[in-house]
Amino acid sequence: MPAPGYDDRRGSVWSKRGDPFGDEEGNEVKYRTMEWWQASMIMIAETISLGILSLPSVLAGVGMVPGIILIAGLGFLATYTGYTIGQFKMAYPHVHNMADAGEVMLGAFGREFFGAAQTIFLIFSMGSHILTFTIAFNAMTSHATCTIVWGVIAMIVLWIFTLPRTLKKVSYFSIASFISIVAAVLITMIGLGVDPKPNLHLDATIKTSFSQAFLSVTNIVFAYAGHVAFFSFISELKNPHDFPKALYLLQVVDTSMYLVVAIVVYRYAGADVASPALGSTSPVVKKVAYGIALPTIVIAGVIYGHVASKYIYVRLFRGTKHLSSKSFLSIGSWMAITLTLWVIAFIIAESIPNFNDLLSLISSLFASWFTYGLSGVFWLFLNYGKWFKGAKQSALALLNLCLVGIGAAIMGIGLYASGKAIHDDGGNGSWSCADNSS
After folding, report:
1. Are 270 and 60 in contact (CB under 8 A)?
2. d(Cα 274, Cα 57) in Å, to the nearest integer?
3. Which CATH architecture has domain 32-425?
4. Where are the chain's structural domains?
5. Per-residue pLDDT reduced to its tens digit, 97-153
6. Any transmembrane segments, and where (predicted)?
7. Whether this model's pTM surpasses 0.70
8. What is the chain's Cα-based Rg?
């Protein structure tokens, strides 16, 4: 069914403003350069990163059967919601980020509210990569120096890799990222299979507190939390209509990997499985696994940093020559924006040093909406006035109303569960030199 803004006479989408990067002919910096497979590689690198490392602990928290159902079910919903984001972009080609989508639906207020939420979410995600970087280096070096020092090094390394301005350049890094995380989890699974934990006790279901069980749900939500950047990825595709191919490849790969890794690691590590999961193996294997996982830890963090910085950069220079030039102002502004965001991310990483707590907080506040709830809102907006015209349309309307409810429920209950977990931890490890890898 045609969305608002679709002009049947021209057979193309229409908006008051065109493509976010305008006519790029003759520009020094061109953005619309990605093939669909390159976009898919970036999406895989962004999505299959830290989230996968928390999933074995999900099965340990709620049991094998509920955990598998949740991972598969939320993966299916994430595929549908990603497709809806693509539909919204086709209806409004000028949309480059969640702020632009908010402006379409709610005007200036929506632009500012959605833009702030998107930026905060991405910065928190950047912080989770700095935190994981410190865990990795503490594990690899047997805590050779203060954890805060590793955090500063992480901030500098991630900032340097964020300096390229186009996603096509980042896409080449993303292939290394995917190989890295696959190799790291394979080494972890093989290491556990060769030397499994003694006296393993696995449960099909586990009786636990409501807040602890819901923390497991939020960790799965974070594993599918790539949707916030989808508008940016589509904007830099040569052919935006190829986005569904990139999306389907992403969802087949990530859901399959999530299930395999969660089941195998939990099977051989048992109820005491670590989070991140790479810490469940012997000291030697753990060092090797973290070393091989470093490209993923860095590159996936860089993608979050790039998207957050690009939102601010496009917001500042949209419609000016500086957006696509190599002037002192444009290069200097990009460097300053990226550095500022990584400094803030470093502060967050040092303030919330528990891996699962940080992921749960991010998922509850933001991923609940960006991955699930907002896509329901997008569909309802695109089809306003036509929700219940026919059986298929009525079913889709009910599905998308449910998605809005799911987003609200994950946010509300997840905030309670993650807040309780952070409170119970009592701030242990914040701004501390202590080893956080054990």
Report:
1. yes
2. 7
3. Up-down Bundle (1.20)
4. 32-425
5. 999 999 999 999 999 999 999 999 999 999 999 999 999 999 999 999 999 999 999
6. 59-80, 113-136, 142-163, 170-193, 213-234, 246-268, 288-307, 328-349, 361-382, 394-417
7. yes
8. 21
